[in-house]
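Pipeline run #58 for the internal structure catalog. This entry was flagged by the ingest filter as a single-chain record with no existing model, so it goes straight to prediction. Upstream metadata was stripped on purpose; only the residue string is passed forward. Reviewer on rotation: M.T. Logging verbosity set to normal.
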Amino acid sequence: MSMPGSPLRIADVRATTVTVPLQAPLRHSNGSHWGRFVRTVVEVETADGIVGLGEMGGGGESAEAAIAGLKPYLVGHDPARLEALRFMIANPTASLYNNRTQLLAAIEFACLDILGRHTGLPVHALLGGAVRDRVEFASYLFFRYPAADGTGEVRTPEQLVAHARALKSEHGFRVHKLKGGVFDPDYELACYRALAEALPGDRLRYDPNGVLSVEGAIRFARAIEDLDNDYIEDPCYGLNGMRRLRENTTIPTATNTVVVNFEQLAANVLQPAVDVVLLDTTFWGGIRPCVKAAGVAETFQLGIAVHSSGELGIQLATMLHLGAVVPNLAFAADAHYHHLLDDVVVGGKLPYAGGSIAVPEAPGLGVELDRDKVAEYAELFRELGPYPYDRDPGRPGWYPLLPNTAYADHEAEGRPAALDQPS
């Protein structure tokens, strides 16, 4: 059946995995980012030579092969027919077997980039138009292992406060998110309260990635109710657990793990467990699903924020365009971005000013690949290989249970040797 659309047709799709260094290894409840991010850059090219950019997390041979496997679906397809693309790549029942949501997201980013370049419009103009020209971000505070030169460790309350103050001074952040679930909750509670004391007038968020028991989450939430909290994010796992927490605290609850599709969003509307839905352009399968979800949230007066899953400049641009067009964005966005030492886009890292980043105005996503940087960091990936996101280099053989009871030792100093050994 012939369908109306744009004159564009997809001719090719390519994927390149890169690894970009971080200031220091970032620790989280399931393991660590081992001093770098591994990301896969996706390029979709049309028959007349327009190249759109996408990005997805993780990578290596498996991600590159998965993107290459989509070529029979994509060649000859009109990049403007994004709804057809959604069902072609990630039909809900087929996705029980192929789990292509993140692949779809990377392709959607690239198709929107193509359409913007073709029309001369920024992506936000294709999504209804910007209601703001800058998007505010929270600092994203992690406990960190030392970098190779011994700097950058964040383990003690004093180090955490110093790090937060430095970020505030450099970038202007007024909201601070602590990624927890690494150390014993009582120790992290002391760290969180130290942040609040050191940054009067700023707002805070706590996110231990769901590793507390419901009872432990209630206990932690009640211990911080007197502070200026935006919300408490995924302190325990599951909608019912979050619902029990919500019934026992005055702090708004938030998630990026248990409301990441429309069925879960509907369940949360019918039986509220989460007050703030954190919209991730990768986890939801693209920018457009996030805009749709924001519309549902607006209808039912749920809060939204823009979530970060460890972006380079391409995905950061998708977050900026999303943040530009949703009117009900009342919270600062998250970003790992300030932990990066470099980027693969022309001009290097997009700058913060006053805790915010300007929404790109150039056609498409508004970023261009720095081919030399892509080549450099693709070679670095071939040299270093991947790393196990869900393992802690300082605790060989450890993995967390849900709820977790085996936490890292906050008195253990130093840099694990595993960080300096290629995979």
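catalog note: The chain has 14 helices and 14 strands.
catalog note: The two ends are 49 Å apart (CA to CA).
status: ready for reviewer M.T.
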